[in-house]
Structures are given as structure tokens and as C-alpha cells.
Amino acid sequence: MTLLVLLGAPGAGKGTQAAVLRDRLGIPHIATGDLFRAAIREATPVGLEARTYMDAGQLVPDGVTIRMLEERLARPDAANGAILDGFPRTAVQAAALDSFLAGRGSQVDAALLIDVPPDALIERLSGRWICQSAGHPYHVSMKLPAVPGICDLDGSPLVQRADDQPQTIRARLVSQLDDLNAVVEHYRATGALRTVDGLRPIDAVSAGLLDVLEAGTAGAA
Ligand code: AMP
User: Fold this and answer.
1) Spacing, Cα 176 to ligand 1 middle (Å)
2) Does residue 163 have its Cβ closer than 6 Å to ligand 1?
3) What is the rounded CA–CA span in Å between residue 30 and residue 39?
4) Does the annotation count 67 as an active-site position?
5) What pLDDT digit, counting tens, does each position of 88-112 carry?
6) How far is the CA of 50 from the centre of ligand 1 (A)?
7) Which of 11, 27, 51, 211 could form a disulfide with 81 if both were Cys (CB 3.0 to 4.6 A apart)?
8) Which of 91, 94, 78, 96 is nearest to 30 (CA)?
9) CA 218 to ligand 1 centroid distance, Å
């Protein structure tokens, strides 16, 4: 079982890199943001609860988030591991994940931090668009689709997320950077933290992540 945690602020490129790692490692990419957006589309109780927090650029409470993630990890396709993207976002979630995995004789193998300074994050987030049907990511300056406004992969229209509007971006960053730091410190303490420079082009960041994984879990972050 290979359990990886991808860490980074909103806009650091976690979703893009998770897709690369998923294809290389053959384990599912589990993004709690995607799980919440699916729950909202399906109008489930979790979706109804999550919606108000998400639209306000705040974290959804730990209890509901942890339950949702544990249910997802218990599904058969995650038996050999998973790449977690957007979870854990708080120290409480990190501790809950450790206990859940310990109960299954497992652990977080590596917590991969994609490091991008705040100024660069604001520029990236305000240009981000995703496709309506599956959330495939695009960007006005970094990753354009072949046909304007249309997803290359499934042909659905590209939309801007409600929480990627400029007024919401700063609120998301301020409230989430503190939480991210707490999670980074959690994995520094367990020895699982590995840091990769996220300011480089997408391919170079992917290569850096794969290098770090090949080097194994021994050594310093
Ligand atoms: P993301 O797609 O990862 O940027 O997440 C979008 C939104 O979903 C966040 O701004 C939060 O409101 C919510 N969310 C996603 N993951 C978590 C989490 N692990 N804990 C709390 N809220 C989350």
C-alpha cells in the first residue's frame, strides 16, 4: 500500500501533479474538494453542509470531512493506496488520518509539499478555469485548452469556480496558510515531509516529485 499526501496552498498545482502521479503509480487520486463538489451536485446531506463553507472560502468542519475521506479510502479501488489531494488540511485531520491508517497497519509514506510563495498563488488562482463535468484544470496563461472555453479531455464547457473569484481568493489564502503550516509541521515531525519547488514548469515539478519518491522515505525533507 502506498499512501501519499500532496500538500500545498490553493493554486500550488496539487490537482495537476496528482493526475501525473496517479498515472505513474496506478493508485487513485482522491481530492476532498472534488468529493465535496460531487456531493453538492448530488445534493447529499454532506453537500448541503459543505456548500456554505466552500462558498465563503472557509474550510468545511473536520468531523464531516474526516468521515467522508475515511469512507472513500475504504472503497476497493484504494486497497493498494491513494494520492490524497486537499486532505489533511488541519492538524486534527492529519492526526485522524494517522490513526485511521494505523488501524489498518499502514501509514502516510510521504507528504509531498509543493512549495509556492503567496504572490504567485494569487496570480495563478485568479486565472484558473476547470471543466464543468470532471474538474479538469486549465489556466489563462499557463495551460490553455486547444479550443477556447472547451475541455480537451471531455468536451465540456470551462467554468470558473465560485471560490476562485478574486474576492474569495485572498480570504481562502489567509485562512488556509496557517492550517497548511500546521499540517506541514505535523509531517516534519513524523519524518514523512518532502519539499519540492513548485515555481518551476509543470513537467519539472512532476520530475521533482517522482525523484523524491524514488529516493524512498529515508533522509531529510
Ligand atoms: P479544493 O478543491 O481542495 O481547493 O477545496 C475546495 C473547498 O472545499 C475548500 O476551500 C474547502 O471549503 C473545502 N475542502 C476541501 N478539502 C477540505 C478539507 N480537507 N478540510 C476542510 N475543507 C475542505
Assistant:
1) 9
2) yes
3) 14
4) no
5) 999 999 999 999 999 999 999 999 9
6) 9
7) 27
8) 78
9) 30
pLDDT at 119: 79
CB 114 within 8 A of CB 133: no
Decide whether any atom of ligand 1 lies within 6 Å of the 69 Cβ: no
Say which of 143, 161, 188, 200 is annotated catalytic: 161
The size of the chain, in residues, is 221
Q: What is the mean pLDDT of the chain?
A: 91
The HSE-up count of residue 24 (CA atoms within 13 Å, CB side) is 14
Q: Does domain 2-27+80-220 have CATH number 3.40.50.300?
A: yes
Q: Which one is catalytic: 37, 72, 124, 128?
A: 128
Q: What is the pLDDT of residues 127-174, one digit of tens each?
A: 889 999 999 999 988 889 999 999 999 999 999 887 777 777 877 787
**Any idea which residue has 490513526 for its cell?**
99
Pick the residue whose CA is nearest to atom 19 on ligand 1: 87
Angle between helical axes of 62-73 and 32-41 (0-180°, round to 10):
100
The rounded Å distance from CA 10 to ligand 1 centre is 9
**Would the pLDDT of 220 be above 70?**
no
Using CA atoms, how far apart are residues 124 and 137, in angstroms rounded to an integer?
A: 12
| Ranges of each domain in the chain | 2-27+80-220
